[in-house]
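User: Structure please.
Assistant: Input sequence and predicted structure:
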Amino acid sequence: MLIRIMIIKDADLSRILVVSKIGLEAYRTLLRLAGNKEILWVSSNPFLAYKALKDRKAKVFSFNTRRFNSVRLNPGNLQEILLQVSRSATPNCAVIMSCLSELLAIHGLNTLYNFLLHLLATIEEKGGMIIGMLIEGAQSKSEEILISTLFDTTLKIDKDFRLRFLEPLADEINLGTTLP
């Protein structure tokens, strides 16, 4: 796992999608992928985010609750989510979206895809990175594949909490090579 995370950092990827079962270890992995960046975390329920964060400072946005001093968001209003997150984004931030499966269930693929296009562009313009998470088995495989096309790489956390690359990237690819 450490080698793969180092490869990701060397490649300076700003869009990472993680597919995993829900749980504290998955949330800790999302946090490790963010490195030492300022954390903006959008979660359907802030409990796991705060457990993963421990004492690390972060701004947490959650759906319809202010638990743990999180910023309340309406999951039915993607414009509100985009506005709140983009207002808080800084050049050294990592936006963790651990609620993509929930937003997909609420809004459908077309609406979520367009929302992600805008969010990704906004965060990249400000110099930040985004780490999205889909819950394994919560959406169809075709939805998972289509959403993954928006990200630089897709990682899967296996049952032993190891990261592995999914297509289009593989372990053999030299991420430092650019194509014409």
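Helices lie at 2-11, 24-34, 46-53, 78-88, 100-107, 109-125, 141-148.
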